[in-house]
Design a protein that fits this description.
This protein is α/β, with parallel strands linked by helices. The protein has helices at 10-21, 35-44, 107-110, 119-136, 157-168, 188-197, 212-218, 227-236, 259-268, 294-306; strands spanning 50-58, 64-70, 75-83, 88-92, 96-98, 113-116, 141-147, 180-184, 202-206, 245-251, 274-280, 310-313.
Length: 373
Amino acid sequence: MLVAAGFKAFRAKQVFHWVQKKSARSFSEMHNLPAPLLKWLEENTTLGGIFEVLAVNESADGSYKFLFALEDGRKVESVLMPNPKRNYWTQCLSSQVGCAVDCKFCVTGMNGFFRHMTADEITDQVLFVRRYLHERRPDAHFRNLVFMGMGEPLLNTAAVIKTIQILVAHAGIDLSPRRITVSTSGIIPGMEQLADADLGVGLALSLNAVSQEERERIMPITKKYPLADLLELLKHRRFGKNKRVTFEYVMLTGENDSMDHARRLVSLVKGLSCKINLIPFNPHPDLPYGRPDRGHVERFAQVLLDAALTVSVRWSKALDVDGACGQLAGDHRQRMGARGVDTVSRSKDAAKVAFPADLDFFATVAAEDDEEE
């Protein structure tokens, strides 16, 4: 595009570095670009997929929840979570505005589905949050990405794959594919596309039940993609460098959390290279489910451990700001406006986020040509 406009090819690499490596939010920050190029960029391109940051809420556990407005007025959320023991951070990304899957234990799905997010909108969540983190915590290690926010990533597979390709590019942020996980409710065509792309990222399957009947009750999507078909696919397709799938299991009191459920879960995943991630349900007043106590969760986990399975318990972060698993956008109901889009609501806690113009806390910008580099 730049060559066609009369600029030298190496300028494209510089622009890519400014946008991806340096997370520049304006063309004026790209101080080693000539004035004619900056003018052309201002007149012919748009920088960033996020139109506005409506709010940043900090949780008592140190997590941050971001409310973003997109260009058409739709709103999405993303969460940044710390691991204080190891000094690294994980970002939870959204891939759709709303969600069409309608899992009965998830507040996000209650809002309905509006549209897919584009690759630039998904990517820009990372660019903004990464810069926000490093500006405030220069020693922070931005390490992991999980596609576990709003939406079903593998109903928007093309945009998710493109986003991952951009974020792992060496000339950009250069994230490790091993530190990226895509979560799905079990969309078989999307799972196959992700496996075919061979990106090296991990897969997390939202399982949440040990039979087809129970799964249909809380996850209607499984009627289209039955549990037996999902397990058969996982026997023949591999995801990520370690080739091990993660099964996410949201524990709902009295629904799927008995010791018999634990034993049946052991039988269900037998023979698969996997990890079980137990997630005690994150309560919400609009949902009828309860959250099991710690002792019950530990007893459930022990049944799995006794069967030599790899198990972890995820006590979700950001509960106090409604940023935990299944809670995103629960307080931001979106309605169709006169033109089919939302009017962005300006809440009293919304604030413009200002950044310093100096981006030296990121990697060096590309040199003007290969020799100089």
